[in-house]
Amino acid sequence: MTLRMTLRSTSRLAVAALAGLLAMVPARAQAPAGLPIIRDTEIENLLRDYARPLFRVANVGGSQTNVIIVNSRAFNAFVANGRRIFINAGAILDSRTPNELIGVMAHETGHIAGGHLARLREAVERAQVIAAIGMLVGAAGVAAGAATGGVRSGVGEAAPGAITAGAQIGMRSLLSYQRGEEAAADRAAITYLNATGQSAKGMVETFRRLHNESMFVARHIDPYAVSHPMPADRIAIIEPLAKASPHYNRTDPPALEARHQLARAKLAGFLDRSDAIVRRYPPSDTSLPARYARTIQMFRFGDRNRAAAMADDLIRSQPNNPYFHEIKGQILLETGQPAAALPALRRAVALAPNSGLIRIMLGHALVASGNNAVLDEAIRELRLALQAEPEASDGYQQLAIAYGRKNDRGQADLAAAQAAYHSGDVQTARGLARRAQGSLPTGSPGWLIAEDIFNQRQRRN
């Protein structure tokens, strides 16, 4: 009995150590769950334009490869689910030029093209085996120590150290493998940038900035206990390769630079505190990005009616910029003036007809206007939007309200079920789907969608 109790205790220790090893696996080795995601058509389109030529030369294109913005101020990007690049908002805000951010994306494209995610899983398994062997040796020592009272040759005292050493060896093996992957992705990034006629100077400058920011703590870091090569080491390797390119001194096209600065301003306006926005864009800065940030700042912290007037000033500067019309429409909609928002949002949709997110906002404004004469327009816009954004729960919510106002209970319940399902509330979705089937013709497209929702037991990824 004593021996079995000791072995059970040791097994719990081994499981805990293995769990710790898995917890230290880099983020890109695991599918993110519950990440705070930012959705914005303007910034997403910019990132797609950055990624498209890289994906093409790396041969990783297709509809399954996309770029997602994470609401985090840390300078970071990672790959997950095989073909998704996650870019932190902080990486966009801190990238002073398009080229700097494109370098980050080229590096992550290298991870996708190299199949590093799948290979990292194999490395994790190998590291677990290494760790498990050490743990089993340690467990045997614990058991022997328990059986002998822990006095023979000090076995009982040394065994816990063997368990810990096994986990450390496994972890260092995994980290060594990942550092090799990171170096390979750096080299691949330079290859992609050369192939697309772009400079790798942005990569060098990014690593140099990271090195300058970390130089005071770098001397206390064990370079063998981190998942990435140290910035100074990366600079030493990639700078000669970057400078050897005929494109090294090539600068970003002015139009791309302008879009990049507007994207940074938009993020700052929506994410930063008011005082931080002022520091980044002081009153003396009259550039278009500064005015964009101050418009959003006024919307969030100041006089919202004045914010709408400031949006009009942006529109006068660039009448065909759909996102300036979008921000005016958003300001009016979110200040309780949905009818007044309609002209701006209709214009934004006309200028950016492929944006499902802007169409959802237009549909929301049409529904919120309280004018039953525009309900058919709202339903049309929302259905078009949901073709582009099939998982947008807020779009289904507005569609449910529109159908409810038209007394179409079957379609209203179906849209509400879809809204609940895409929000992750499967239980509510199933109940609404079954109710919708009571009002929809059996076997109709809507009835079949409701049946599919009812048959779900958990939210699909």
Description:
- The protein has 461 residues and is mainly alpha-helical.
- The protein has a domain of 275 residues.
- It is built from 20 helices and 4 strands.
- It has a 4-stranded mixed sheet.
- Strand 3 and strand 4 form a beta hairpin.
- Helix 4 packs across helix 7.
- The longest helix has 41 residues.
SSE pattern: HEHEEEHHHHHHHHHHHHHHHHHH
Helix content: over 70%
| Continuous helix count | 20
User: Which radius of gyration do the C-alpha atoms yield?
Assistant: 27 Å
Number of strands: 4
Please summarize the sheet with the most strands: 4 strands, mixed
The largest sheet has its strands arranged as 1-2-4-3
Give the overall shape.
globular
Coarse structural class? mainly alpha
| Distance between the first and last residues' Cα | 46 Å
Average per-residue pLDDT, rounded, comes to 81
Instruction: List segments where confidence is low: pLDDT < 50 over at least 5 consecutive residues.
Output: 1-31, 118-147, 215-220, 222-226
Beta-strand residue fraction: under 5%
